[in-house]
Design a protein that fits this description.
mainly alpha; Multidrug-efflux Transporter Regulator, Chain: A, Domain 2; 3 domains; 3-stranded antiparallel beta sheet; 15 helices; 5 strands; about 65% helix; about 5% strand; rod-shaped
């Protein structure tokens, strides 16, 4: 075959495995123009048409629109430029599809109502700026007027979800649930109270500073009792509870032992709220962190033990 050989449209269709109708469509749009016409007016194509048609079909299979293909053919755009633009567009489509799949999976698992489904879809579609605003509002509700400074900034950062650019379905589902949780008024009030519990000087108007970590103290003091299967209401638990109250005394605002137990019980019940642990677990999934240690066994034990001694 030489460069001067011309083919009628039917022969071009046979050689390329394309329908005559498709070739005529591309030809009419200037993508695969005929090299000449027969005396009867029929289109004739040269060997270059085979290569052009192959490129058009490849780009169409990759989702490139006809306008962009025409610009490539006319040398207005380079093929790498078009490829880069469409790869970026595909990234957006992939993220959108992942979000949709995650929402549908969550709907199926939770048996969500139409209203819940609409909310989940809306939360999943939020932009990065909108997600930051939503989380910022939640953290402001918890920390505003209570804690400032670098220590509190670190605590707020540790509570901030950072959904990656290409999250997997589990991360998207976790984000939707965390976003819903952060909008719950009761949970916001709980978190704010726990922040206040962890500060000193607040009630007196002094600059708030973080006190010790109550959960860590409880874990260290109570884990051996839980491992030893000591009943929280038993006499055997008395010295364990006494040490716990003593170790937590600096966190409390009273000196009376009975009142200290009441105050410690109230704080532990807040820390033991399942929503707090759920928030931490969801945060770990979203941020790709290791799953947090569950403190439920030691907190349950402590709450039961204190209730038995504060009746």
């Amino acid at each position: 075959m030489n460069g001067h050989t011309l083919y009628p449209i039917g022969e071009l269709a046979r050689r390329t495995g394309t329908t005559v109708r498709t070739i005529r469509f591309y030809s009419d749009r200037g993508l695969v123009p005929p090299a000449d016409r027969s005396p009867a007016g029929y289109r004739l194509y040269d060997s270059g048409a085979v290569a052009r048609l192959d490129l058009v079909r490849t780009l169409r299979d990759l989702g490139v629109d006809l306008v962009a293909i025409r610009k490539v053919m006319d040398r207005e755009l380079t093929l790498p430029e078009v490829a880069a633009a469409h790869a970026e567009a595909l990234d957006v489509q992939i993220r959108t599809l992942r979000l949709r799949r995650a929402v549908l999976t969550a709907v199926a698992k939770r048996g969500a109502t139409p209203e819940e489904t609409h909310l989940m879809h809306r939360l999943a579609k939020l932009s990065e700026a909108e997600r930051r605003q939503l989380v910022g509002d939640f953290l402001d509700a918890a920390f505003d007027g209570v804690g400032t400074g670098s220590v509190f900034t670190g605590v707020m950062r540790s509570m901030t979800p950072e959904l990656p650019d290409n999250p997997d379905a589990e991360q998207v589902q976790a984000w939707v649930e965390l976003a819903e949780l952060s909008q719950d008024a009761d949970f916001r009030a709980l978190v704010r109270q726990m922040v206040q519990d962890q500060t000193s000087g607040y009630a007196q108007g002094g600059p708030p500073v973080l006190r010790g970590n109550l959960a860590a103290i409880v874990r260290d003091q109570i884990a051996p009792a839980v491992a030893a299967d000591i009943e929280p209401a038993s006499l055997q638990a008395d010295p364990v509870v006494a040490v716990l109250v003593s170790r937590c005394a600096h966190l409390l605002d009273c000196r009376d032992e009975a009142e200290s137990r009441w105050q410690l019980l109230a704080r532990l019940e807040r820390v033991n709220d399942p929503r707090r642990e759920r928030y931490s677990s969801l945060l770990a999934v979203i941020n790709g962190w290791p799953g947090p240690e569950s403190l439920r066994p030691v907190l349950d034990w402590s709450v039961h033990a204190l209730r038995a001694r504060t009746r």
